[in-house]
């Protein structure tokens, strides 16, 4: 509990008004200065309050004035107000009332004095008759169209418009001056028109006067327009002085002429110019100060600049001030005997003088009183006041710019103390705020104030000043109860102070830069005390509230985010996020700046031309708020325009000129591109053409090539020089050549402008020294160094000799040979080529090997390499080998053929392996031999183990090389196994094939059934056991409502589902499940639906009828099968012939057309063996076309000879190399998982 003892508090006038006592007069409506344009405008009023009601009187120019006694004035007097207005009908009669008026309001407690009000009269501006004006001038000149608004005390607003009341388009070239005139910096022919109309608007009289239209004729210039440097049109001269008063709006103006249109900029010469204090208007021609202050006084310079020069004008701005209050004395209650100090302080330029009056009477005119004194600072002191000192005191401050006056009530009275503040108030503030706890008291005389020492020790506490306890920078420690009491009485009140966490913005809006047309988002995340509730987030732009845009969607406020779409120039500014709660507010600001690619540079100029250089300068365009990083200078060769514009140089963004290196004898145009963070500007307008003079050649070609196109011919290919290095006219190449051996020191010379250059009869691969020199009209290039070139090559003459082969292993050999004589190569030796052809396998007989395809491998070497190691050969094969030498023209003759045989190798993996389980403990493996035995098979190696990695590996050797199956016994029926099989030759064990599977368990019937009963059926389902053999069990069912006859259904355990049909609705059935003549279990069910009487069986349900129909269907099926067989036997040879003469695929390869006759049954039939379809319509194509599935028919009726070819394991895939990919005989068309054979383990597992 905090306590503070208070005897009394000063009372304000507003509290005093709440007390039912006498009150001094107070003027609440001051008379206002006015300019009268009509008799209705003359109204002078004054309003005041007080108790008793005040009485009004007036002075006119310091003399007493009674409006009620003037016959031309009418007075309106109501309680607390007084007004007078004129009864005259003419403006001339109002001139007598032009004067300064003061209103006085008096009652028994004193007299209040109003401010001085000035009344002026003026005649409203009127339309004057004018002559039509026709102005003529020449294009490029500057001109001023005058407005000449009528003279008036009102400030006019000027609008230049056409006859359709559309505003004249203003720009940097065409502006309106403060004098209302229309200024043209320079004229264009488009400015010609006959309706330039100046419209003058007066707001006070609500008048718009349209001046006479002006006709402007602009004649085209007969000569080239001459650029002109800027010149000031308004103001004239180089310096002006501008006097202003504090608080006024001041506009400085610079209107210039010039060609091209000058750019105007402003700067402050004596200090830094504050952008927040100024507004640039009228295309930078005006600098406006709203509410100018003393800090704005100084020197301001406007600068107009174009390519021809610049002009400046300097303004000296002085700011003076009319008097304004710094401190006004408050109206208060005083007790008799007190000392009253009335503090009155004012400021202005010049410094105002302070004077005092009592009830409107100057102190000098009142009775002398020693208790009254006036200090040098203008303070009035009244000592030992009594009830007679009650009055209204006026403090008046004056300088040459005006006078201000304030009334202060001094009321001397005796009243008992009271506490006016309600007891038990709770004050809530957030930390850091200034807490104000009210304890408003009332009483006179004024007692002394004392507070508890604990509060006074805190410098943040000001105890009950003006009835308020003030705690600055409040914290949570300040929370609690406070007591305010009046000393020597039992008066007191309590108040509670609650301190909450202040609202904090965690993530303020950032400074954003956005391109025009894009969308951007400001984010404002805050932390608010929960007791403050949900805050209001208010966004402002340049201190103006922002609301969501429901029409154009410009602004969208979503929680803490402000989304701005389609950003334009008007969207730039400072965006402030205000988080507002009941007790505090936090705000943070971010800026939005529109940035974009820079504008292209302008005003390109070429200066300082030198022999091979020039200086290019330019003026940067607008950078759109993103500083230019660099400028790119590009050039266009006028002689090679097809190359387009090419980059020449880059300079940093702070430079506006560049020294450019140039080539001789070229015609240039330049342009400049600016680059900033956003991107590249467009290119500037091209510069003028600049030509460089020719000079002697300074370069030679860098590369010369001699090409071998034809023997006895020297062909020179040159790397042509860039045309920019020609350096002058009549450019050509001087070619010099001579033989390296036998031709002596003399050089052969010729000239050419194009390539290639040829020398005939140069011999076969002869060496030449070659020089090529660049020459133009101005001179020769530097002396070139000779290079060696050769004449044309020819194919080699001889084959390599002494070719030998060394067998390194079953797949690698080393070939060597003797080097050929280099003279027989007849060219540049590039290397040797080894041709290696596989004839066939060593295991095949001669006739069969001759029919194997010959695969030739070509291996090339580098020059001077006389042996080569060749790998990846096929083991156990016959090979033939030859070697040739080659140069760039081709290969020479081959060496003698060398035959050799590769050693036996390990076999490849078996082609397939299938698992079959005859019992729970047995597994039979079926496999096909390896496609590549790589030797003579001597058997197989089988390894197997349980899938558990820790189980031992079992090994079994199979000595029979022609074995294709093996049965393993005594296996664990509960385990999975992995089987690994390899072929074996004398070279070792081959690659493996692996399969994984498990044995098949003995079958058993289901142990549990699920029943779903319907009206005519019951659905039975069960879970089929994995890896178990399928078994059959029986379902017997009996209708206990009808005849006691059991019916039987045979079911397979692998089905997992069976529907027992043909039941009678609403009937009871007994189901019995049996297996191997043993009953598994029985079940009673009841079918759904309503009961029906049993229908007598018809003939369609009799057994004899069903048997007859089944026999007919069976006969039709047999007939169709015969038709398919007859149609399938339409080939060029019979099955019997093939069976009598079996032959493997290598000895008698099967041709594509032969297989096609067996696979395309409908297109190829022979005349020697007609199809069944020709003899019977039952086998016609229409009757045999089951959904177009002729391919299925072909597969089912394949003759035995083709099947035998497909199933022979010893031949491998070579026997089928000619089959199409989609053929059923092609192993690649069969799933890799089955390797062409059904996999029973896949089905079982």
Automatic annotation (TrEMBL):
Species assigned in the record: Cyclopterus lumpus
Signal peptide interval: 1-20
Transmembrane parts of this sequence: 1104-1125
Basic and acidic residues bias: start-end ranges: 1134-1154
Annotated Gene Ontology cellular component terms: growth cone; plasma membrane
Name this polypeptide is given: Neural cell adhesion molecule L1
Membrane topology qualifier: Single-pass type I membrane protein
Compartment annotation: Cell membrane; Cell projection, Growth cone
Keyword Lipid biosynthesis: no
SUPFAM superfamilies: Fibronectin type III (SSF49265), Immunoglobulin (SSF48726)
This protein's UniProt keywords: Cell adhesion, Cell membrane, Cell projection, Disulfide bond, Glycoprotein, Immunoglobulin domain, Membrane, Repeat, Signal, Transmembrane, Transmembrane helix
The keyword Transmembrane appears for this protein: yes
Alphabetical list of InterPro entries matching this protein: FN3_dom, FN3_sf, Ig-like_dom, Ig-like_dom_sf, Ig-like_fold, Ig_I-set, Ig_sub, Ig_sub2
